[in-house]
Task: inverse folding
C-alpha cells in the first residue's frame, strides 16, 4: 500500500537525485545514498517518484505538454530549481518548467485529482450472458440497462457511488444525489454525473462515453511521453457528445453522436462510426456462441468500420465485413493448433 510521504522524505529524495544526476559521485556518497534508501520503505517510494518525474520531464518539447497544465503553473512549489535546470538536463523553456513543476507538486506531495476506486472486494458484481439484455434498478434509484455479455461492479458509500464497467455496454439513467457523485469507470475513462443519462462501453480495448441527457464530466489520465500520470484531465460532455479512449496510450477522440444512436443495442442493432475492427469483433462475441477472434500479428484490428448490423445476425455481419475489407473468415477451427472457433485473417494479396 502506498504510504503518505512527508515533505522531509520527499525533499531528501530530490536532493539525492540531484546529487546522482550531477555526476562525479564519490564512493562515500554512494554508500550514504544506499544507506538512506534502505532505512525506510518510504525512502524507496519517494526516490521512485522523483525518478519518474525526471524521466517524464527530461527531453520534453513544448508540444508534449497540455497547455492547460501551464496556464496556472506559476504558483510556488517545493521543487528544486537544480532539478529542473541543473546538470544533466538541458534548459527547459519557462512554460515547460512550470508544467513539470505542476506535475511534481502532484506527484511529490501525494495529491491526486483522481478519486479512489473501490477494490474488487467492495463491489457487487452484476453480469449478463450472450445476447442477454437486463434492466436493473440500483439501490439509489439509478436505472442501469446492461447489454449482452456485460459485467459491472457496483460500490456505494456515504459520499460516492461507483460502477466499474469491466466489459460490455451499459446505459445509465442516474438518480440525482448532489452529495454523492455517480461515477462509472472503464479502462482509463471515468464518467461523473449527478443526474443524467448516458451510455458507457468497454469492448475490444476501446472505452466510450456517449451522453443522451444532461452534462457528464469525463476524466482521463494525463499522458507525458507515454507515462500515465496519477491525476486527470477532464472533458465536459453535453447531450450528443461522445468520447472514446482507443486503448493505445493517450489517443482519444471527441465526436458528435446522434441521440437515437446512443445505446442502439437496446433495439438489437449494432451501429459503428469509425470504430476499429477489434471493437466490432468484441461486440460480435457478445452475441455469438462460437468465439470469433482476429489472428495474432495480422494488424487488421485497427481497420476502421462505419456500418450497421442486426445484433442477432452475426454470421451476416461477418459476411459483410469480408466483402468490404481485405480479410478472410476461417471457420476451419483447427483444434490441434489451439485456435478454435472462427478466425479472421488478412486476405492474401491479389
Result:
Amino acid at each position: 500500500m502506498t504510504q503518505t510521504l512527508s515533505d522531509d522524505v520527499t525533499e531528501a529524495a530530490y536532493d539525492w537525485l540531484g546529487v546522482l544526476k550531477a555526476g562525479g559521485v564519490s564512493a562515500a556518497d554512494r554508500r550514504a545514498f544506499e544507506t538512506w534508501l534502505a532505512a525506510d520503505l518510504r525512502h524507496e517510494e519517494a526516490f521512485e517518484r522523483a525518478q519518474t518525474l525526471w524521466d517524464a520531464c527530461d527531453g520534453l518539447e513544448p508540444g508534449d505538454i497540455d497547455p492547460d497544465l501551464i496556464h496556472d503553473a506559476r504558483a510556488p512549489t517545493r521543487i528544486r530549481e537544480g532539478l529542473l535546470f541543473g546538470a544533466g538536463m538541458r534548459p527547459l523553456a519557462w512554460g515547460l518548467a512550470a508544467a513539470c513543476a505542476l506535475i511534481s507538486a502532484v506527484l511529490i506531495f501525494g495529491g491526486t485529482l483522481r478519486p479512489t476506486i473501490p477494490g474488487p472486494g467492495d463491489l457487487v458484481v452484476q453480469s449478463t450472458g450472450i445476447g442477454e439484455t437486463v434492466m436493473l434498478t440500483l439501490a439509489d434509484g439509478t436505472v442501469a440497462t446492461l447489454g449482452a455479455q456485460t459485467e459491472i461492479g457496483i460500490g456505494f458509500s456515504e459520499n460516492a457511488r461507483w460502477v466499474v464497467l469491466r466489459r460490455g455496454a451499459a446505459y445509465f439513467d442516474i438518480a440525482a444525489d448532489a452529495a454523492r457523485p455517480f461515477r462509472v469507470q472503464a479502462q482509463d475513462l471515468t464518467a461523473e454525473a449527478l443526474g443524467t443519462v448516458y451510455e458507457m462501453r468497454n469492448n475490444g480495448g476501446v472505452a466510450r462515453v456517449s451522453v443522451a441527457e444532461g452534462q457528464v464530466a469525463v476524466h482521463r489520465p494525463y499522458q507525458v511521453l507515454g507515462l500515465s500520470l496519477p491525476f486527470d484531465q477532464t472533458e465536459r460532455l453535453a447531450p450528443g457528445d461522445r468520447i472514446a479512449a482507443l486503448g493505445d496510450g493517450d489517443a482519444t477522440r471527441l465526436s458528435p453522436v446522434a441521440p437515437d444512436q446512443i445505446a442502439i443495442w437496446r433495439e438489437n442493432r449494432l451501429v459503428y462510426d469509425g470504430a476499429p475492427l477489434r471493437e466490432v469483433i468484441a461486440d460480435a462475441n457478445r452475441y455469438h456462441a462460437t468465439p470469433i477472434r482476429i489472428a495474432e500479428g495480422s494488424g487488421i484490428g485497427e481497420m476502421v468500420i462505419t456500418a450497421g448490423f442486426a445484433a442477432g445476425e452475426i454470421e451476416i455481419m461477418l459476411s459483410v465485413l469480408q466483402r468490404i475489407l481485405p480479410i478472410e473468415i476461417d471457420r476451419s477451427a483447427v483444434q490441434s493448433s489451439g485456435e478454435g472457433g472462427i478466425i479472421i485473417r488478412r486476405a492474401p494479396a491479389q
Observations:
- The first helix runs from residue 7 to 22.
- The CA atoms of residues 207 and 235 lie 14 Å apart.
- The longest strand covers residues 161-173.
